[in-house]
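2024-03-11 09:14:02 INFO queue: dequeued item alpha-L-fucosidase, len=532
2024-03-11 09:14:02 INFO validating residues
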Amino acid sequence: MALLFSSSLPGQVAPQYLSTAKQGAAQIDETWQKAVAKYDKQRDALLTTVERESKEGPFQPDWQSLANYQAPDWYRDAKFGIFIHWGLYSVPAYGSEWYPREMYLEGSSINRHHVATYGLLTQFGYKDFIPMFKAEHFDPQAWAKLFKDSGARYVVPVFEHHDGFAMYDSDLSDWTAKKMGPHRDLAGEIAMAVRAEGLHLGASSHRIEHDWFLEGGRKQDSDVNDPKYAAFYGPAHPRLGDDGAALAEDWTYVSPAYAKDWVARNAEIVQKYHPDLIFFDWWIGQPSVRPYVAEFAAYYYNESSKRGPVGIINSKLVDMQKTSAVLDIERGQLSSILPETWQTDTSVSNKSWGYIENDTFKTPEFIVQQLADVVSKNGNLLLNIGPRSDGTIPQPVQQVLLDVGAWLKVNGNAIYGTRPWTSFGEGPTKVEAGSFHDTQTKPYTAQDFRFTTNGETLYAIEMAWPKEGEAVIHTLSSDVVGARKVNSVSLLGAPAELTFTQRTDGLHIKVPAEAPGEYAYVYRIGFEDAKH
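2024-03-11 09:14:37 INFO prediction written
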């Protein structure tokens, strides 16, 4: 496509990158392949390793083999992790982390904001945010200490988001934080710091969505149409699918070359950083991609098993066979106990995953109660934060994390290392099950409990303080066939054991006049027939 020039202001020349929307899929992909060809040798070497090691170990690159996967105990015990969405999109700090997509969607609110703030898309494209992304106040050790103090046991930075800018030191791309912008291996520095604090490292890769993420730039005059930037902006194929529909109905073009590049980039992260967990967003379930997912999963599981416990892959919806990975439910929960370990990921911010100005944040009470509910149903909670482009974490976010950590310091025995009980809980408040419903659950009451177990000990987490001076757990009624007799009750954070009576309508516990803490209250319950 020809690159034309026209004067936008007297004495200035502005490039006019004409629309490439009428190009065919093969032609679009060929432009991208030529742009990334300089790394063919490195890519091919990685793919050779993946092909070999995907067949050397306990797993094979097919779903029947991968269905035998089981999550390691460290992850089942950890329960709470921190997710980090940090990238170029934190520079405009407007709308959401999908700013790079929507700035190229003609007529969208973000497109109008971008043009008004920065100029036409031919004059200022997404690439032009790179020099503005400096991370000048980034202190990975301070981040890691904050995450440790929050009570998290694992940390999952986004190594590359849909925008295609790698936050790690990639040998397959020029468009990385190590080679541009901050000129630092940001993800690598986070990795070293969190491991120094004794935390597990995860890596989130959203690169598969980059296949189509910047499609809007092809439909109008923008820098997405310049072949010089194809290695960064990607194929930008037209999206032939609907976010609200099943991926089986998505017909977006994904070339074998792009899918193989996706495998290679993930394998590079594994080889360089050895993450204990890989988080994928939803689009890995697209039909053209699934065979490559199976190959990478077998490679990653086999490779990680050589070093220690098998790695973890978080996947959404039905993107992978249900027992071949750990199910992740975005901004949502379940209504009952799931036999397999699962996870919910949600953001401490309400409007965006990445940093934006004037965002609002969830309260520590909301996070603690969600954690209790998720853990009672055999899940983990991965809580996201969005740092600023300068590398600082907003003070309100830091305070939420510290408040959650203070609660866990007192009540962590009811969370870490626990397993579900026969029932997840009781009470009138019903959780809205499914993705994107986590803020729709009504406020919990003192009649709402969540149960966890550790060995012979039962923990009952009361979601609000009982104002009547008595907590009643109806599930522990003495009138149920096979009911176990309670012989001890203590309240974590309180100095003495509590008095109680087990009646036909439940376990009645006399509570102190003042609550020993905030947000949720944990009773440690022992049974007369417990084996010691």
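2024-03-11 09:14:37 INFO annotate: The chain has a mean pLDDT of 95.
2024-03-11 09:14:38 INFO item closed
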